[in-house]
Amino acid sequence: MLKRIFEKTYQWLEDRTGLFSFIGHMARHPVPSGARWWYVFGSATLCAFLIQVVSGIALALYYIPSADEAYATLKYITHDTAFGGFVRALHYYGASAMVLMVGAHMAQVFLQGSYKFPREMNWLTGVLLLGFTLVMGFTGQILRWDQNAVWTAAVAAKQAARAPFIGGWLSTLILSGPTVGGSTLSRLFVVHVFLIPALVFAFVGLHLMLVLRHGISEPPIPGRKVDPKTYRREYEDSLKKDGVPFWPDAAWRDMVFAAVMVLAIVLLAIVFGPPELGHPPDPSLIDANPRPDWYLMWYFAVLALLPHGIEGFFMVFAPIIAGALLILLPFISNHGERSPSRRPWAMAFVLMVVVMIGAFWWAGVKSNWSPNFNVKPLPVEVVGAANGPVFEGARLFELKGCLNCHMIKGYGGKRGPDLSEIGNKLSADRMILLISNGATNMPAYAANLTPKEMDELVSFLQSRQSDWEPPK
Ligand code: HEC
């Protein structure tokens, strides 16, 4: 009885939609035999994207994209909802996985010459999807809306403003206004949650349609060249001779790899948890350098390490040139050898890019070009007072971000000089002057401190002496 109902329903659905035979047809379409583990990165990228969709929707159920509430809702999600911290961690490591998989997929397609005739459009839609992925990473980080996020947005806009001709327009586009504020957050939210995801869905659809249209590229064989005149016929012939159905002969590797990736993401999320929320945002402190997530860190490190004056040009022209090269690639060389062993320059190029990104990433991690946003607060023994101006000054020292750049007795960041004994060195007047006006690489605080706060801050700094005793 039940079986009959199922069968009837199945037949009715199949008759009216054709969905089942369509899926069956797609799953069983012949692909070249000998597909290897190399081919798993594309489907893994898709899988990572689906994790982002699911975890992202879960986060959006609670997140409020307003400058006043975003930080508080994230704190709430992390600490007061069931699995909220875990979902945030999933979304974070899922993003990392997606960036890694896009990179691996691209490197593989490039190395094996799969972008050549007739798959030029597969490559081009892929390049767009790479761009969308990076925009998602950048905007997502700003939605975290802690001090680091706000500074990231401000610095990105400042850098963009240096671009010749379009600088002002670019900067306004990033911030949705002249400065970081409420509309920055709500517009970036729209970009991150509606605009780019819609584009990603559309282009993933197109990308997959193209994969079906041209078939999966056959593993390259040294000496067998792509000739646009004969390629299609040869491909059809080889499929007829020894093609295998996509499911299950080729797809099981995708399944296994995706499962391992999902497991790794879940384990990372459980072990390390979500990215820490820094101090609540203080948009008045925007003169520092932020520390973005790892997949953008290398680019910010390049910008920070380049000599002054060049970085404006680099920041605009490097992405344009890189993008143009990626777009032109399949038109510059759409035929000839595919095997990496016959295209040593392709291998050298990928190796160079990986080493360069790795080196700059490492430089970004190691160097002190940016404030440290994960500093531990100063303990009472170090402050030397539990109330009074010295204590209030120490609190301000943390609150105003001084500690992110300056070290006190081993606590704090390394961007600026160690201030453990600054009281021996600078008079109170010199301190006030310096803090008000700032210095090279140190923001000016004149507008951000009341006279009372300045006094307390200076009391704290004056007490930083080698033989200072707390007043009895
Ligand atoms: C973005 C990082 C950054 C922040 C934030 C920052 N500083 Fe600095 N600070 C520096 C740097 C870098 C220097 C070295 C000055 C230079 O480059 O000329 C410096 C120098 C100083 C000096 C002089 C040190 C010396 O040995 O002469 C004092 C005092 C000081 N900062 C106090 C503060 C206080 C107080 C705050 C918070 C209100 C603060 N700084 C916030 C980066 C920072």
Structure description:
The protein is mainly α. It has helices spanning 2-17, 19-27, 41-60, 70-80, 84-111, 120-143, 147-161, 167-175, 182-214, 231-242, 246-272, 294-305, 311-332, 344-366, 380-383, 388-399, 402-405, 428-437, 451-462; strands at residues 30-32, 243-245, 407-408, 411-412. Strand 3 and strand 4 (411-412) form a beta hairpin. The longest helix has 33 residues, at 182-214. The radius of gyration is 28 Å and the shape is elongated. The N and C termini lie far apart (91 Å). The protein binds heme C.
Query: What is the topology, as strand order, of the major beta sheet?
Result: 1-2
**CATH top level label of the largest domain:** Mainly Alpha
The stretches of 5 or more residues where confidence is low (pLDDT under 50) are none
Strand composition percent: under 5%
Helical stretch count?
19
Bound molecules: heme C
Architecture blueprint of SSEs:
Elements: H1 2-17, H2 19-27, E1 30-32, H3 41-60, H4 70-80, H5 84-111, H6 120-143, H7 147-161, H8 167-175, H9 182-214, H10 231-242, E2 243-245, H11 246-272, H12 294-305, H13 311-332, H14 344-366, H15 380-383, H16 388-399, H17 402-405, E3 407-408, E4 411-412, H18 428-437, H19 451-462
The structure holds heme C.
Heme C is lined by residues 288, 371, 400-402, 404-406, 415-417, 419, 422, 425-426, 431, 434-435, 439-443, 445, 457, 461.
Task: Jot down its keywords.
two-stranded antiparallel ribbon, 472 residues, single chain, Cytochrome Bc1 Complex, Chain D, domain 2, mainly alpha, binds heme C, elongated, 2% strand, 2 domains, Cytochrome Bc1 Complex, Chain C, 19 helices
